[in-house]
Design goal:
By secondary structure, this protein is mainly alpha-helical. The protein has helices at 6-27, 36-60, 62-67, 72-87, 95-117, and strands at 31-33, 91-93.
Length: 121
Amino acid sequence: MRTTNPLLRLLLFWALNTLVLWVASQIFSSVRFDSVQALIVSGLVFGLINATLKPIMVIVTLPITLLTLGLFLLVINALILMLTAWLVPGFHLAGFGNALLVAIFISVFSFILNVMLGLKR
């Protein structure tokens, strides 16, 4: 499914981010949302941070990422998740270790959804 309309593409990725965060909150007790609004805003903020800040972080940390054979990207994903929780009131995430586990889950689940839907970033 290749969408050419940028607005539709943004809304689709926002919905997928929100879905992934909701599923993570259902699986992991360390992830909690106070309301549906907090979940929806978290999906938007998470997507925006992934689109803007993550590429910069990947470039800055390229040497350590190469030394760890890419495993440091999981740390970056956990930091992005923690930043989202810090920015959005009503999104609670308990500690870095839990954020790392949730980030691994989100990476795998997002990859599976993107493959199933035929999306490319």
